[in-house]
Amino acid sequence: MQILPSGDRALLVELDDLDEVLGYYAALTADPPADVVDVVPAARTVLVTTSGSLDVLARALRAVKATAGSQVAGDLIEIPVVYDGEDLDDVARLLGCSAAEVVARHTADEWTVAFCGFAPGFGYLTSSGTWDIPRRESPRTKVPAGAVALAGEFSGVYPRESPGGWQLIGRTPVRIFDSDRDPAALFHPGRRVRFVDAGRG
Amino acid sequence: MSSLTVLETGPLATIQDCGRAGQAALGVPASGACDRAAYSLANRLVGNPVGAAALEVTFGGLVVHADGDLVVAITGAPCTGVPLNAPATLRAGEVLRLGVPSTGLRTYVAVRGGIDVPPVLGSRSTDLLSGLGPAPLTAGRTLPVGSLVEPMPGVDLAPVAHPTGGEAVLRVTPGPRRDWFTDAGWASLVSQPYRVSSNSNRVGVRLDGEPLERARTGELASEGMARGAIQIPPSGTPVIFLADHPVTGGYPVIAYVTEADLDTCAQLRPGQPVRLISS
Q: Per the database record, which ranges form the Carboxyltransferase domain (chain B) (predicted)?
């Protein structure tokens, strides 16, 4: 673990891998140090913003005993998906299997929200399965809200219409982010997700 | 309940408060007023509680009609035609007209009682990147004014320096990815004359200058960033993150602007010369 400088109000904790990030984030948020304003987990790092002293924060961050990633058990949510995405056949080709097998693998895996970013409520979901999907060569200017997508080792669901370069495999009617709802974001770091094949809609 | 009606907005006028801190883990940016000192001062001058919503006006041009008797205070970039850094009374039917600022970029208009639009995720701030909060102001819109106030502070005028119109100097400290750049790259960052790009907005101040030499290439996994982060995209020229910056980013952060100089960043105008110095 390395602690890197990030201005007068934050420190960046660099960890070995995503599993370690999940475990560190779980332990940190279970017992947050005083004066912590925001905690942002990402693929290899956790950014911690404070309203207090950076020295005090650094000491607290070094003292965090990370929970082992596999022991992090958040609640489970099921997301129904109509698997008719425009890139489904391309993804199947990339993986050397049929579209039906992509769906079978996507629904069989248990996914975990590793972190959020890109847009409010956009979760980067990982699974124990091996996914390694390149982004589209040219990003779409408009991806519809509810689009279920793959990129790299991650799966995600676009919370609202936005540009995007991920490969689209399906869509869900579930509102992933709704600022009038509490909680507004359905996905939060540590939450487990299962995608369910909802047929042809 | 009293209100204001927007007659003209100028290039961009939004509603801002202290923002949405504490929700970055859900991908929700902090947003909030860009020049936090000017915003807070405007609220204090009219006896508003901390965090009351005010108007952030970019490059003047706002024209509003007082639908009732109101007490207002205007701070930040000094616009022609209006009093600055002092509480003033606006009688029912009067029109407040902000001219072009002589220096700086963002002017704050606080109204005693605060702008009382419904909060979104705990804040009345317009977040232009995420599309959260109230939409930017448009002509014809009526803005309700709240009634939650504290005693007037009894201050006639707050002596505050105007934003600089000449070269701005920003102190910076090394960021988490300083080592992605050569020593020559760092030296270039803290010595070369930059200019503010016209491409700047509430997300970030973009600087035009000579690209920085990198020590390593390749992709950085996206990581969390705080306000003041100086991100270096492949073009090699800096982007300083402001209020509406995304919570994570994938380009290396070579440095951070010190907290004390962040409000200066909010007032930088396109074309203005900027120098970054090692803190």
A: 25-279
